[in-house]
């Protein structure tokens, strides 16, 4: 079987289990791991040409599951077949939101995928930098800069810009930039911008309650031309202008590597 996966930790975990799977079933799996954009292109080509060369794949909810759901095997039939092995830890191994966001489309009548990649958005930051220069920042800017739920996006911008300036002056030597972003034009840019869009009260569509959960083929009116969305876009552009050089060429992998290399103090990471 041909397995097309994204070049990500979950696919690496699958690769480690392949020898065990082949020994157990006698089925040989040929796993290819590529960038998400390449994976989506290969899948769309395979589906639209009906080539059928790819049997198993990483089904991104937005990029592949939503546009191609009508051509997926309903896994519920296999899961309920007593002659086949069941999920090792049962459906309870995944949260209900995992199933809703990753396995269903429109409703839960069909199971189109098995959740195996539970992506979460988090803010990575250099604890050493924020501890060492905390008093200096408070003295100059007047508030506690420790990352947390009380920090606004305007303050985030101020913090990132302040670190940039101190790094240029040679005061801060641990990092080169205040913030970095996965602002490469594609899925990563959408993920990164969505945080800002939501904070400004904006959204992508208006009119259907299951956009972003179960999914829908009737999302309603696009709202990216609403004042909240426009203001969010202006702020995001301002933020990227002071972000680490290279941010507009990074997806989540590039941002991860830059943070791991010690170049940036803050990294909103998918």
UniProtKB/TrEMBL annotation:
The keyword Transport applies. This is Extracellular solute-binding protein. Pfam families: SBP_bac_1 (PF01547). Keywords: Signal, Transport. InterPro entries: Bact_solute-bd_prot1, SBP. The lineage of its organism: unclassified sequences, metagenomes, ecological metagenomes. Belongs to the bacterial solute-binding protein 1 family. Gene3D superfamilies: Periplasmic binding protein-like II (3.40.190.10).
């Amino acid at each position: 079987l041909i397995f097309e996966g994204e070049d990500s930790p979950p696919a690496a975990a699958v690769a480690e289990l392949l020898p065990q799977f082949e020994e157990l079933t006698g089925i040989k799996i040929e796993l290819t791991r590529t960038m998400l954009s390449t994976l989506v292109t290969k899948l769309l080509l395979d589906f639209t040409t009906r080539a059928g060369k790819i049997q198993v794949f990483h089904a991104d909810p937005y990029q592949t599951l939503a546009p191609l759901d009508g051509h997926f095997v309903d896994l519920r039939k296999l899961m309920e077949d007593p002659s086949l092995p069941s999920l090792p830890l049962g459906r309870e191994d995944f949260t209900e939101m995992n199933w809703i966001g990753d396995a269903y489309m429109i409703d839960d009548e069909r199971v189109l995928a098995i959740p195996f990649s539970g992506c979460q958005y988090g803010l990575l930051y250099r604890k050493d930098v924020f501890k060492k220069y905390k008093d200096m920042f408070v003295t100059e800017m007047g508030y506690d800069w420790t990352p947390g739920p009380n920090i606004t996006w305007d303050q985030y911008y101020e913090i990132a810009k302040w670190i940039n300036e101190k790094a240029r002056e040679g005061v801060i030597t641990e990092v080169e930039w205040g913030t970095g972003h996965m602002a490469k034009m594609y899925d990563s840019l959408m993920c990164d911008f969505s945080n800002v869009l939501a904070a400004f009260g904006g959204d992508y569509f208006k009119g259907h309650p299951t956009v972003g959960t179960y999914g829908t083929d009737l999302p309603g009116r696009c709202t990216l031309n609403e004042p909240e969305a426009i203001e969010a876009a202006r702020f995001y552009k301002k933020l990227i202008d002071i972000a680490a050089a290279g941010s507009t060429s990074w997806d989540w992998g590039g941002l991860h590597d830059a943070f791991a290399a010690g170049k940036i103090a803050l990294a909103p990471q998918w």
